[in-house]
Amino acid sequence: MKLFGTDGIRGMANTPPMTADIALKVGMAAGQQFMRGTHRHRVVIAKDTRLSGYMIEPALTAGFIAAGIDVVLVGPMPTPAVAMLVRSLRADLGVMISASHNEYRDNGIKLFGPDGYKLSDAVERQIEELVSQNNFQSLAKPDKLGRAKRLDDAQGRYIEFAKSTFPKTLTLEGLRIVVDCANGAAYQVAPLILRELGADVVAIGVQPDGFNINLKCGSTATELMCETVVKEKAHIGIALDGDADRVLICDEQGKLADGDQLMAMIATQCLKTGVLRGGGVVATQMSNIGLEHYLTSHGLSLARTKVGDRYVVEHMRKHGFNVGGEQSGHIILSDYTTTGDGIIAALQILAYMQEDGRPLSKCGKLFTPLPQILRNVPYSKGTSPLSDPQVKKAIASAEKSLGKNGRLFIRESGTEPLIRVMAEGENDKEISTLVEGICESVRKVANA
């Protein structure tokens, strides 16, 4: 059974692999995997606001208790809060129940080790094997079962942690901020953090009902944030996704700032204050060449990894970088966090603005990006369009046309049945034609 994708386990709620039965087994398997020593073992479990969280949370809890691990339940909290609490509580494991930016019908399970980092592929495979083989021979004896309790002040702990990453010499006084919490995990903590730092906050996407997470709001539907910024005459808009590990930002005119520009701003600030490590930034194949040229002009490098924040983090850890992320809004600042944190990334952008003194529309455009087009083509799982000869031929032809004046990047999504086609080049019309040609060849195979 294949459980883990690029970001944990994910699927439609109440269908494999997101069933109560499998969640129970994942809890038992992960519990067995992380049982080490004779101390009382502990796991932190958080969730977002999906209705199915009420099914997955108790199933995981039962699995961990059966493995002899105490469970600390913290309720709706951002994914990065789990990573922080695992380290703060000296826990052996952390779990986030969320499907991130997906609609409410989906859910997922993200696992963190005792160091607060997402599990490696190798450890995930070991857990997967235990579940597949139904191999639960090391479960706890009756007197060694785990216990479950709720941590009532978990939100306060994370709020104080997030605020501590904002420069002590600055406040957010004078700023009117729209924050869209996607009716998700940060619907309580994000507005409080901004208000406690002095901002005038207009909070939207803060009325979750189990069904409206990411629904026409948040980082996957930024129109509401952009419109609200203009309507409320705000200085900036912040849009989080369902589990708040990702952020998109718009300026006072309601225009979105690209994720690459956000990384450039943070890297520039870190370089200015002398805290940038690794000699540059780590990003993925999706980041614009314009970012690379900007960093090079400042004597910095851009290291590229496979798509997925876990691969960015792995490269950062291995090579000593402290700034990295994805164009889509996952920004990792390893001086503070072990995973993407939308709130903390937004705080760094706000600090940059406050120190610069100009509106984001003026201070947030550090480079001119090359024209870039990204298209998603649905396909049926089980097929492999990218291995089809006609698709390969279309890709090879496009690569030849672009030559050294552009870049082509095509991949299967790790979380959805989509082929993602991205092209970058100097001519908008040319790359649009090339992308559409590849998409059409994929569609023909997918619909055959």
Write a concise keyword list for the protein shown above.
single chain; 448 residues; alpha/beta; Alpha-D-Glucose-1,6-Bisphosphate, Chain A, domain 3; seven-stranded mixed beta sheet; five-stranded mixed beta sheet; 14 helices; 19 strands; 37% helix
Compose a concise summary of this entry.
The chain is an alpha/beta fold. Helix content is 37%, strand content 21%.
Task: Give an overview of the whole structure.
- The protein is 37% helix and 21% strand.
- The chain is of the alpha/beta class and 448 residues long.
- The protein folds into four domains: 4-152, 3-Layer(aba) Sandwich (Alpha-D-Glucose-1,6-Bisphosphate, Chain A, domain 3), CATH 3.40.120.10; 159-255, Alpha-D-Glucose-1,6-Bisphosphate, subunit A, domain 3 (Alpha-D-Glucose-1,6-Bisphosphate, Chain A, domain 3, 3-Layer(aba) Sandwich); 257-363, Alpha-D-Glucose-1,6-Bisphosphate, Chain A, domain 3 (3-Layer(aba) Sandwich), CATH 3.40.120; 372-446, Alpha-D-phosphohexomutase, C-terminal domain (TATA-Binding Protein).
- The strands form five sheets. A seven-stranded mixed beta sheet has the order 1-2-6-5-3-4-7, sandwiched between helices.
- Helix 1 runs parallel beside helix 2 and helix 8 crosses helix 11.
- The two termini are 27 Å apart.
- 49% of the residues are buried.
